[in-house]
Amino acid sequence: MRTWPKSYPLAFLIALLALLPVFVLMQLASDSAEIFDSRNLTVLGNTLALMGLTVVGAVMIGVPLAFFTAYVHMPLRRLWLILLAAPLAMPSYVGAFTLYFSFGRGGEIEQWLGIPTPPVSGLWGTALVMALYTYPFVMMTTRAALLSQDASLINASRTLGLSLGASIRRIVMPRLWNSVAAGALLAALYALSDFGTPAILGLDTFTRVIFVEYNAFGLSQAAMLSLQLMVIVILVLYLESRVKATPEQPGRHLLFWPTKVQRWLMQLAALPPFLLAIVLPLVIFVTWLLREGSGGFEWAYAWNSAYASFLAAMVAVVLALPVAHAALRGQAGRLMERITYFGFGVPGIVMGTALVYLGLKLPFLYQTLALLVIAYVLRFLPLAVGSVRTATENLDGGLVNAARVLGASPREAFMRVTLPLTLRGMVAGAALVFLEAMRELPATLMLGPTGFETLATYLWRVYEAGYFGHAALPGIMLVVISGFGLILMLSGERRTEFSI
C-alpha cells in the first residue's frame, strides 16, 4: 500500500486556501450583479488597449537594451545592468505620481525650465509609464537568451560570408522570439493587474473601476468585474505557461568592443528610460522634501508597513515549507504547488474585493491586521515557495540518509540537517515577500484596519488630497526599499563572455 508523504495534507489545505478568493468572488458576484453593462465595453477596451500599448513599448525599449547589456563591452557593465533593470523593482504608481505632477501645465518641469510640456495622463500617458516600468521584464528574459547563445554559430556564419548584421538577423533573432514573448506576456500581466498607475493618471481600466465600485458599496458588481478581469489574467497566464525558451547548448556568448564614440552614443541612447523611471522621481521627491519638509508624515507609517510585511513574510515561509516539500515528492505535490501560484497572478484589487466580503461574513476578521496579512500571504506566497523549493532541490539527499543511518529520527534529521541547509532559501523568500508586501497598494487600501496607514496608503491619501509635496519622504523610502529588492533579484547572475 502506497504511503502519501506527510507534507501532502498541509500542502492540500494551503492550495485550497489559495483558491479561496475565487470561491468568494463567485459567491459574491451571484448576488444580483450585472454580468455585462454598457460601461463594461469601454472599460474592456481601455484595459486591452493599455495592455497592448504596454507590450509594444516594453518590447521597443527592452530588446535593444538586452543587446546593449549582453553583448556590448563597456566600463562598469554590472552597474549599467543594475541601473537599467532598476524600474523592475520600483512600484509603477510611484513613477506615475511624480510624472503626473512633473509634466503638463504648471508641472514641476515648467516651473524649473519655463518650458510647457504635455501632460502624462489618459491612455497614452498610462501606457508610457507602464512601458517604463515593465521593459525590464523583456530586457531580462531576452538578455538571458542572448547570453545562452553560443558565439561559435555567429563565427561560422561570418566565415561563410555573412555580415555581422545579417548573422544577428538570421541566426540570433529567430532564437529570441520565445524569450521576447515571455517578457512581453509578463509586461501584459503587470499592466492588467496594476491599480495605482491608471487610477492616478485617470484611465478607467478594470482595476480602477473595481475600486470605484467598492467605494460606492457596489461590492457584488466589483466582484463581477473582478471575475471578468481574472478571465483575461488567466488567459495571459496560460499563454505565458505555453511559451518555452529554446534550449541552447552551453557556450560563451558574444562580446563587442565598440569605439569610444560608439560607446558614448550607445550609453546616451540607453539613458532616457533610466532617467525618466528612476532619476526624475528621485529628483522630484528631493525637491519636494527640501521645499516643504516631511509634511504630515509620521514614522508610524513606516513601522506599520514593516510590521505587517514582516508578519506576512514569516507566515509565508512557514506555509511554503510543506508546499515546497510536497512539490518534490510527486505529481500531486507539483499540482498543489502550481495552485498556490495562482494567488500571484490575482491582482491586488481582486484579492482585496474577495477578502472584504469574507471579512463581512466573518466579523472577527473584518478590518483587522490579520485579514491584511492573509491578503499579503495569498498574493506573495509563490515567492517564498519558489525560494524554498530551489534551496530544497539543491540539498544533497545523501546527507539526510546519513543522518538517518546514524540514528537520527525523521524529525531530528529535518531539524539538524534539512532546515539549516535550506535556511538561506527561506531567508531569501521571506525577504522577497517582505519587500513586495511593503509596496502593495490596493489590498492595503481595502483591507487595512481603520487608521492603519502604511507608506503606500499614505502616498495614495496625499494624492487624493492634492498635497503632493507631502509625498516626498514615503516616496524616497519606497524607492530605497525597491532597491533592496533589485539587489536580491540580481545577486546570483552568472557571467560568461566571448570577445570578438
Automatic annotation (TrEMBL):
Protein name, entry field: Iron ABC transporter permease
Sequence similarity: Belongs to the binding-protein-dependent transport system permease family.
Gene3D superfamilies from the UniProt entry: MetI-like
Keyword line: Cell inner membrane, Cell membrane, Membrane, Transmembrane, Transmembrane helix, Transport
Coiled-coil regions, chain positions: none
ABC transmembrane type-1 domain location: 44-238, 302-489
Originating organism: Marinicella pacifica
Compartments where located: Cell inner membrane; Cell membrane
Pfam family, one: BPD_transp_1
Membrane disposition: Multi-pass membrane protein
